From TrEMBL:
Gene Ontology molecular functions: cadmium ion transmembrane transporter activity; manganese ion transmembrane transporter activity
Annotated membrane topology: Multi-pass membrane protein
Record keyword Membrane present: yes
One BP term from GO: iron ion transmembrane transport
Subcellular location: Membrane
Native species: Brachybacterium endophyticum
Keywords annotated in UniProt: Membrane, Transmembrane, Transmembrane helix
Transmembrane segments: 28-47, 59-88, 108-127, 147-163, 175-196, 230-249, 304-326, 357-382, 403-422, 428-447, 468-489
Protein name: Uncharacterized protein
Pfam families assigned: Nramp (PF01566)
Amino acid sequence: MTAPQHQDLGLGELRFPEADPRLKKWTFGNLIAFTGPGMILASVTIGNGEIFSSSRGGAVFGMAIIWTFVLCAIMKAAIVYSGGRYIVLTGEHPFQRWAQIIPGPRNWLALLLGVLAVVCFPSWAVAYFQGLGQWSNWTFHTSIDPAIWGLIWGVIGFATVFLRSFKIVENFQTVVVGLMVVFSFVAVFVSNPPWIEAIKGLVPNVPSDYPGWIKQDFPDVAGRSIPLEIIAYLGALGGGTYDYIGYVGSLREKRWGMLGVPDHAVLEEKLNQLDSDHARIPLAEDTENVAEGRAWLRAVKLDVLASFVSVGILAITFLVLGDVVLGTGASQTVPGDDDILGDQAGFFSMISPVLVYLYQIAIWAAFFGSLQALMSTIYPYTVRESFAPSFKALREPRNWQKVRVAVATYTFLGAVVLLFSGLSYTTVISFAGILGGVLSLGVWGFAQLWTEHKVLPKPYRMHRWAQVVVAISSLALFVFGVVAIIQFFQDFLG
């Protein structure tokens, strides 16, 4: 009788390390204890996503589109959680398993999503260059070309890749997100928005036209189709595949679940040889092991929950402030290419002029913190996880710092080219957001559902309701992405 393949590979039945006792109880303290990579994920989108896109959405459409931000945060959180739970349960990134189970040439889907993500790296980086360039002139009262300031900050951001401590990045970004949440909460309550209108904004309703003042004073905004404008906001909200692939990979640093077994690298290599067309991941299915596995999953739930609750709060508060301070009946101005950040200072000056200075500090922390986290942590992990299934050298721990430097160099040089190309800020983040933050994310969600069905023993799969949520989210994001990418190129090409 032939032994099962996993026994031939010396795997045996896989058992989880004992879960941290704090994971057995849901408390606020435990939420903080198991928050880290999620805060890095939340922080890398604050500047382009929540501060710019949400404020612009509030100024243009008011509170009528609050529901789109809430729904998008839920959909993205569901798909990100599906990837995070897989790596914690199995000890391997889902992209590694796709080589075995996705029909077609080996590794084609991981390579495709990886290439789409890598194409977007310079677009997001240059957006931070541009934001920091404008911030510097505004804060230091200079009139230097913002591109020069942006280049200086880009060089400093690139240098952070030589800081090798994940903990430094994790702690810094957690503080950044916390500060922004507190500031925005205070500003919303001081502004005393029309709360009834905000509640009505939770009811699905797509605006049929732009306000009259937008058509008159901002024809470039009014010239964009309404679906494209709104989907571009959602693409920037909370990040996209270029961030999420790296986020899932960064969970290796936490050693949760199967990532924390002794000789994890050996386990991962054996799993890579497992032909899952004929065998599932050999997780022990006894009651004790299933309980330990599900306890470890609480760490992922807490981290993703903290990340996307923070993202949702920031998005909604900046949208509300955008309506109250910048929108119809207020100053009637729209954050745009030439003033990405300045208009939002009004959110805090209405509390006290002194808070404008605190806002300037928070903006620097958000934009520069995001830039250095992308270059030093998220993007290198995205490259590793996307291409390691095809190129074994990327899986070698001794090559990790080389990967970080190479990815940071590519991102920096690509961003410099875009910085001096004349492309507008909104064009750059719209393209990257639609491609990576909407369209490709839908593809990832479907692939993740298939992966769970194909290789995870039944006790470890998501509950049926969670599978339905991921399926609906994946379909919605894919359809939104197709519609928006078609309209984007129609507008871009004239």
